[in-house]
Amino acid sequence: MDADVIVVGAGLAGLVAVHELTAAGRKVVLVDQENAANLGGQAFWSFGGLFLVGTPEQRRLGVRDSFELAWSDWTGSAGFDRLDDEDAWAVKWARAYVEFAAGEKRSWLAGHGITFLPTVGWAERGALRAGGHGNSVPRFHIAWGTGTGVVEPFVLSVHRAAAAGLVRFHHRHRVDELVMTDGAVTGVRGTVLADDDSPRGVASNRDAVGEFELSAQAVIVTTGGIGADHDRVRRHWPERLGRPPAHMVTGVPAYVDGRMLDIAEDAGVRLVNRDRMWHYTEGLHNWDPIWPGHGIRILPGPSSLWFDALGRRLPEPCLPGYDTLGTLKHLRTTPDIAGHDHSWFILNQRIVTKEFALSGSEQNPDITAKDRRAFLRSRLLGKGAPAPVEAFKRNGADFVVARTLEELVERMNGLTDEPLLDAAVVRAQIEARDLQVANPYGKDVQVQGIHNARRYVGDRLGRAVPPHRILDPAAGPLIGVKLHILTRKTLGGIQTDLDSRALDRDGQPVPGLYAAGEVAGFGGGGVHGYNALEGTFLGGCLLSGRTAGRAAARRTA
Asked: Alpha-carbon distance 259 to 282, whole Å?
């Protein structure tokens, strides 16, 4: 055999699996269709947010959290409704994940040198019901180093193992088939691709220059989801989310193509929950793109006003930072706007300065570089928006700026094929909202949410401006932002048991085959159910990759 274990996919889940395997003394072949510059995969580009429960960071900020509260939030968000079938293992994985997040996750990460910003983000605040979707408290812990910093210790571990003779890299090797022997997976077969020295994230060639076959006692598949293949996204788009968009921006590199899902299915593996997916509604065209159709997500604070394509303010809980899929459903199922693939933020300079952040390691150079002084200058002490945000405001195709609302709406209409917005209608809605900020109370649920956010010290310091009139000239200029659907996470995939063993169509483990990360729905074929609570992409890769590596190490002793 060529190794004890073959790991297919060099993203975060794959690297963690290799770390666990080599720590146990196993010999590993790491196979990936991209070049060596892409170690760490999609996770490298992430903001580095991790879902953690009951941490010192939370307690220092006055946040009271517990496993019980987190589990209530998780189940209320997941909405598991296929418990005798597709969710049978997913709900078990969900319980294990929340226990991990409330238990050893933080100390295990600390053991790898991963630390966190002192502030904790309050992501995905939910559907405004105690038992429904959303985080009751802030749980989004951002790693110093962003996703790059989370990936780094596992990249270093794999390189050390390679120097010790425990790992061999097969870059530019595309797996086309799982090799079966007497019903067990015993290797992989595929195509050798031509060398390509493109920088990290840039789409590479698919020119075939040869074939290969590798054998091992076990294979772990960690190849990610489908987010870069818009046709595949539309094919699995669920009816409950309405009409699939004709135009989307892409939140993942081109290699997140979903090929291994079909290859696994051809080998008899069961795929579940393929109709569950996670796409953002606050996507921007990247003015400085790396991969095709490169989109960036706005991580908004609570104050921007959100309008549909016809200029109507979105209903609750379709508020910035609250309910991602609820907002997506509203935009795609409301008949008179479903034919439009965009919506709008309207805000002002005071809001963009404090409340706009951009997802991605490259959009947060201060945190990615672990530069604490730069972080303080940029995020807490600076008078302007962070430099990457200002760059988008200045160069981005989706931003317009004006001193008056009428001028702003005219420029917003210039970004669409036909003028859909009426300045008088938009003004009436903004003025009605602005009347609500004269008192610390009122009936506007978004204004109530701003007051609620500012009771949390983390938001008050860095993420939520005091309530004020959007049309206050002193807070200007006014800013309009055209928002697009941004593809991101695949929530379903290969069904696995609690040892990350891939299951066949009868629910039995396929001998020799494991799956981890996004390709396995981050565990069990869909640990999130219908809704993610954020900070769970990286965490799901960490736990499922660790589980797969440890289980495969035990069975290849």
From this structure: 27
